[in-house]
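in:
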């Protein structure tokens, strides 16, 4: 079967598959000297054999199965030497079948790391980047995709032997190619160029040490933080302006048409609650970890995966390093660009109040805008019912003086509907996570954490203690949570010690 895939001979492969060969079976493959235990789909991806991959997928090949080293088919595709167009087509076919671009190897390398190391072409890289939820992730040695770009031209025997990289292709990598890929990753702000690896080296340090001066220069320039106004405060400013403009428009054009004062009071209360909760969530310390270690290198006896190389400390369970704030946050949920702050253990309650109040605020303003549009409309003759008269209104409101106010009401209404749907969906997912005692980060990246995996590779949530206890843990005292986390940490450490013992045997 592997020979048919190498030749991309779909006819022979189809015969084999229909005659009962197992499409998911692990098989030995000779990769120019080294024997690798992989599945047919892995080889299909590595050869970017479009027809073979389609045949395999159509006959029950599972996309997220691992080879003997813990690679998925996307890891194989990322280091493929095939042309970008074929690789992109295979990537799209695998993605349609549910391939996960964030699946890490046992050393926490994601397919994007491999693609960066193999200096993949931009069209393929852009598709892979879009499919990757956490493109800035680092492996157990603290390396990001930019470190891998800087290391790309290095012919390490170990890398070539264990990764299936083609030696000739590696030596053909020029600095121009590395600069192109690094510039691409930087342009999309996918990876933090300041992130150090386990040896405290940034990608620029690695490039400079290898005499890639142009690449080092590009990475050094990217390391300089952008100006305050240019980045950090831009989104909060846009948010305040949009919210303010919608309410000013509502004050002048919507509320005067509402006969009762009560809706205005409710809207005002929702706006004040949004502002207060937003201010609290945006300016409060989200639970930054204090540095607990300062010796420059990884302390002996500590699992490299549980050490933050940027902050130089041992990570606490459920904490994560935020690349925007460049700090580790306890029970990291996500970084909110609209508030320019992380959402973590200590400000998540304010954040939940903020999005709830914003949801009510936008909903109320939308409902009042709709009421005012209908009311203004009913002043005019409406012989064919309100739907027909609304359509007439849209057409006439553009070019008459009478229609100015009505146009503003329509714009406010449209904006409110769009925001209402988006904030509603966000609120729904936040609430669901809250009831399950999970953070947004954990929901997206659970595969990176050993404590979410069952022994047979499935998912379990060790933090779920029932809806009431989960709500209590989210909103109230965290002391009890601490006890549980400490107990869990011991259990996880014991489990990982056990599994590493198994591995060495
Ligand atoms: Zn950190
Ligand atoms: Zn942050």
């Amino acid at each position: 079967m592997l020979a048919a895939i190498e030749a991309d001979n779909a006819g022979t492969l189809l015969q084999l598959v229909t005659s009962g060969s197992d499409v998911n079976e692990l098989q030995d493959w000779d990769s120019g000297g080294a024997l690798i235990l992989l599945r047919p789909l892995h080889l299909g991806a590595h050869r970017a054999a479009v027809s073979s991959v389609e045949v395999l997928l159509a006959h029950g090949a599972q996309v997220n199965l691992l080879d003997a080293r813990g690679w998925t088919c996307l890891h194989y595709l990322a280091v493929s030497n095939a042309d970008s167009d074929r690789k992109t087509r295979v990537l799209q076919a695998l993605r349609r079948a549910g391939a996960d671009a964030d699946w890490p190897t046992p050393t926490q390398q994601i397919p994007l790391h491999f693609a960066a190391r193999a200096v993949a072409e931009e069209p393929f890289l852009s598709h892979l980047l879009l499919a990757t939820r956490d493109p800035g992730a680092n492996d157990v040695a603290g390396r990001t995709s930019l470190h891998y770009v800087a290391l790309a031209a290095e012919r390490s025997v170990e890398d070539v032997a264990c990764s299936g990289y083609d030696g000739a292709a590696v030596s053909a990598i020029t600095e121009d190619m590395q600069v192109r890929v690094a510039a691409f990753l930087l342009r999309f702000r996918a990876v933090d160029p300041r992130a150090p690896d386990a040896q405290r080296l940034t990608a620029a340090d690695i490039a400079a040490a290898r005499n890639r001066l142009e690449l080092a220069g590009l990475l050094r320039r990217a390391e300089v933080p952008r100006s305050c106004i240019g980045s950090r405060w831009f989104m909060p400013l846009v948010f305040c302006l949009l919210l303010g403009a919608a309410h000013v428009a509502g004050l002048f054009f919507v509320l005067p048409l509402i006969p009762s004062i009560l809706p205005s009071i409710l809207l005002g209360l929702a706006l004040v609650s949004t502002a207060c909760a937003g201010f609290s969530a945006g300016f409060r310390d989200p639970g930054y970890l204090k540095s607990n270690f300062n010796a420059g290198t990884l302390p002996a006896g500590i699992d490299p995966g549980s050490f933050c190389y940027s902050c130089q400390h041992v990570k606490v369970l459920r904490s994560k390093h935020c690349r925007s704030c460049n700090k580790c946050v306890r029970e990291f949920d996500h970084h909110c660009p609209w508030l320019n702050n992380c959402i973590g253990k200590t400000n998540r309650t304010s954040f939940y109040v903020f999005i709830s109040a914003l949801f009510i605020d936008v909903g109320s303003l939308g409902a009042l805008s709709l009421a005012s549009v209908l009311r203004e409309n009913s002043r005019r003759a409406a012989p064919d019912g309100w739907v027909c008269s609304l359509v007439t209104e849209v057409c006439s409101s553009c070019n008459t003086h009478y229609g100015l106010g009505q146009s503003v009401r329509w714009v406010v209404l449209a904006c409110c509907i769009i925001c209402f749907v988006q904030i509603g969906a966000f609120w729904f997912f936040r609430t669901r996570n809250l009831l399950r005692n999970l953070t947004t980060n954990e929901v997206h990246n659970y595969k990176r954490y050993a404590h979410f995996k069952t022994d047979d590779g499935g998912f379990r949530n060790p933090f779920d203690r029932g809806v009431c206890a989960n709500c209590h843990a989210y909103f109230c005292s965290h002391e009890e949570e601490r006890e549980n986390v400490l107990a869990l940490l011991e259990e996880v450490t014991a489990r990982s010690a056990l599994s590493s013992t198994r591995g060495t045997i």
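note: Residues 322, 324-325, 335, 342 surround zinc ion (ligand 2) (CB under 6 Å).
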